[in-house]
């Protein structure tokens, strides 16, 4: 496997945790194998692996962008990742406040709802 793939898998595990990555890998099929390779190499092996900004900052940016663009399905996964990236609850709410001003209150409101539910699951010990 290419070095970018190995870097991506290492970064992905560091950010999302082994349990999440193991579940994703187990669910991979021939149908989505190339897509999984693409995101592992590009998102995790290039963007998330870059040290140009901290993982804390990258986590905040990712959550804000997901909320601003209405891509809510991945918000819980990235809230869980904050346990590994160093982004605090205060950081996350600040990011979502920016979303409210620059992308709309309904999107920020929904993202906050998802974050609250995910934090409650995390505090209850649900790793998903």
Automatic annotation (TrEMBL):
Pfam families: CMD (PF02627). Transmembrane segments: none annotated. Residues 34-117 form the Carboxymuconolactone decarboxylase-like domain. GO terms for molecular function: peroxiredoxin activity. This is 4-carboxymuconolactone decarboxylase. It comes from Roseivivax halotolerans.
């Amino acid at each position: 496997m290419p070095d970018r793939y190995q870097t991506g898998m290492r970064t992905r595990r560091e950010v999302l945790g082994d349990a999440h990555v193991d579940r994703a890998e187990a669910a991979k099929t021939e149908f989505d194998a190339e897509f999984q390779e693409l995101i592992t190499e590009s998102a995790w092996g290039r963007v998330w692996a870059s040290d140009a900004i901290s993982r804390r900052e990258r986590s905040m940016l990712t959550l804000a962008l997901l909320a601003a663009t209405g891509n809510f399905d991945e918000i819980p996964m990235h809230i869980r990742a904050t346990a590994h990236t160093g982004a605090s609850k205060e950081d996350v709410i600040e990011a979502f406040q920016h979303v409210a001003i620059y992308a709309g209150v309904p999107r920020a409101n929904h993202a906050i709802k998802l974050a609250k539910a995910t934090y409650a699951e995390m505090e209850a010990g649900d790793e998903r």
